[in-house]
Amino acid sequence: MVRRSVVKFTGLREKGKVMDGATPKVVVSAAFAMVACVVLSSASHAQTVASSAAAPPVEMITPAQWLKRQPKPIFKPGHTMPRLTRYGWSLALDTNVELTENWHYALQLPTYLSDEDRVLERLKDPNDEVFKIVALTNSNPAKYPLATILSRSEPLNPAPETFLRDADGKLLSGNTYSPLNPQSVLDQMAELRARPLRELRKKVPITIVLNGGEYGLGVPGFMRQFAEKDPKVAAAQAKSGLDWISFISKAKKREMDTIAAAVRKAVPDRSLYIYYATGPADRNRYGGWRDWGMDPEDALEGSDLPATEYYYKHFNDGYLVGGPNGGHNDMLSRALNAVGFQIAHGKKYSYDWLCAGWEDEADPNAPPSPVAAPAPAPDKPVANAGETHVLSNNNAAALVDPNAGGVSPMNLYTGFLKCLFTAGTLGGNAGYYALPGGGFNGTFPADKPKNYLPQMTALSQVQALFSHLESDVRGSDLLPGPNKHAKSGDQPAYEFPTGDAGLRVLARKLKTQSKWLITAWAADGIDRPVKVTIPELGQVTLLARAAGSVYTATLANKIPQLVLNDPDAMTPTVKGFAPQKVTSAQILAGFKAPQTPQTENLLAWFDAAQGVEKDEKNAVLSWKPQGELADWTVNSSREGKEKVDEKQPLPLWVADAGNGLPALRFSGSQAGLMSGKLKTVAGLKEAATTIFMIYASTVPQESTAQDGNNNRLFNSSSGIDFSNGLQPDPKKQTWQMRMMATTFKDSPEYITVGAPFWGSQYIASIFYFSGDIAELLVYRGDLPESQKVQAQLYLKAKYKLGL
């Protein structure tokens, strides 16, 4: 009972999961299938053929061949981390075996364990893949541990009261299960799963049993509207004293517990029984979160370990806090929301459902199109089952989740996984829910593997690292951090504040000794140092990497000692587990901040060290920027003619305003700088703009000082005001950095620095800046997070702002 679309497709359930003995089918109706027919002239066709003939041949390889060529992780001998699994497709036998032998995956049956899939009958045929897999497991159960996925079958001809019915006994919304589902039907449902397990267990050991869910009783948000119309159900709900969501949740718990008991009895010697998505990542995230899942405490016992769904940009914003949906809907905040609840209920570890995203992939074996097909219409509506979905960029993944956001960079996915394992994940299920071009078992260019393969190897590499840290993880507690979780304020955040939304730090403390396990992750993809304070350990400086950094910390003479467990961030064990001692000083010394700002999309770069025209007394006459709009020079005179006010001093150029760097010093009255009338700049009207400024001021915001200073730094005739939200230090003049993303309402006609827009005549105003301005960067566009971070790193390093 988890939040997702209620739309179902032939061969494709709500999650896009299918096990049909071969490959999953994504069925796309003609209403939104896009076909481009291109008629070529014989001349263009001949030219294309000649061009293709001249190109060097591309080596095409199979998934198993690609895996064999990758650097293999080395797991710690004797570790007890559970085997990894997968969901959503069948792989060729050689790929299945390679994953089992070298990547710590279980050997997986290629189909659901159900009567419809004839698994037990297939065991009679020595040429059948099922027979071969079972034979391998029996030959060496430790080397080839078996995993299977339970049937999704539902009872045939169940009792009439199984489904919701109106007062006249007519079905409501088809065969929609009732919360009053008879126990006899639940027992039948359990037996449909347990009986094949019992029979298979007679023939082979079974290590992991997966239950993909999404059958039986549905989610409250979908079914409540029908349950309310069933008089028996409505009466039972009223009598229970529970709200509708809890009433339905208790009924789902009864279903899950019945099945779990039967499964556990059928395979008592299993390693794990994992039910899909029992972790409450959406807890308290938005007002209707309870509509799309069970009450979290009802789900915990339905699986041997809690299991939460973490799919890149699948009903989440990816990795960054404050993404397009705002707030804390990023994957790690969601994970820590689930983890906090689980810890509160005595569940310290988990086995999660994982995916770095999915998308349509072209068939690499298809003949190349000599002429590009017309681009599909963006965001074409897709009508299905009474709902409207969006097929973004003709991406079939949108059939599963209209907001699916493509595939994560593997370094960031690796960093996320390291945080997840630090939080208590012991293993996981690697899923992929779109059909790659050519299928999951087709060949592909050796340097362009299908998206699902690097995801599977990344998960294995991280689990291998944590197999060497397993005793520390199992012998420690995840530290709560000083803050409450942003969405669930009744539980700790379980991370430590860094002062930078792109830097995430988690820590565990061993119970029996002064030893910590700390993971630092640059979730925005920019490696950089981060300072963090851990209770009892003190302040440490770590290198946060896009692929994550996992440290062990101890104390010697009350001084923190650091060991980096994964010097090779992406493949931390392929040369053996080789931690390196590091110091905070070494981390800082080894970090190379950008020496200049990024020039991409740079409109104007004002730097007090260049472009400043001044008189013999260092009074500033003009300040010329670099960048695309170098004519945005600001002057001490109006329109480059008369001085604004002869009685007021001009801004002064100060050679050493701080850290040996120059700045322009403004007096706090009518001594700003203003451009002449600017040329119209194409594309700036209604255009997003990102501004960075380094300034220093002793005057508090909203000052009532006699000069009326309001710290107006940068302004334009189109309405950009760079003063709001400034927090200068009224006691000491220190460098500060300010960033603002805004929009030009119109293409600017004038800009001013240190004062408001003056207009065509003198305007008496109280809004002037008092203090120093050292540097100002104006970029076109709302910059991607990585470019924002690069600009901040450049400025922080240059002005010594606490790296």
Describe this structure in words.
It is a single chain. With 803 residues, the chain is α+β, with helices and mostly antiparallel strands. The strands form eight sheets. A six-stranded antiparallel sheet has the order 13-14-15-18-19-20. Strands 21, 25, 26, 28, 30 and 32 form a six-stranded antiparallel sheet that branches. The protein has a six-stranded antiparallel sheet with strand order 22-23-24-27-31-29, with no helix packed on it. α2 packs parallel to α3 and α6 (183-201) packs parallel to α9.
Task: Give the tags.
16 helices, 32 strands, 803 residues, disordered N terminus, six-stranded antiparallel beta sheet, alpha+beta
Mean pLDDT metric: 83
> Total number of β-strand segments?
32
Structural class determined from secondary elements = alpha+beta
Strand content: 15-25%
Helical fraction: 10-25%
Low-confidence stretches: 1-52, 371-400, 700-711, 758-766
What is the 3D shape? elongated
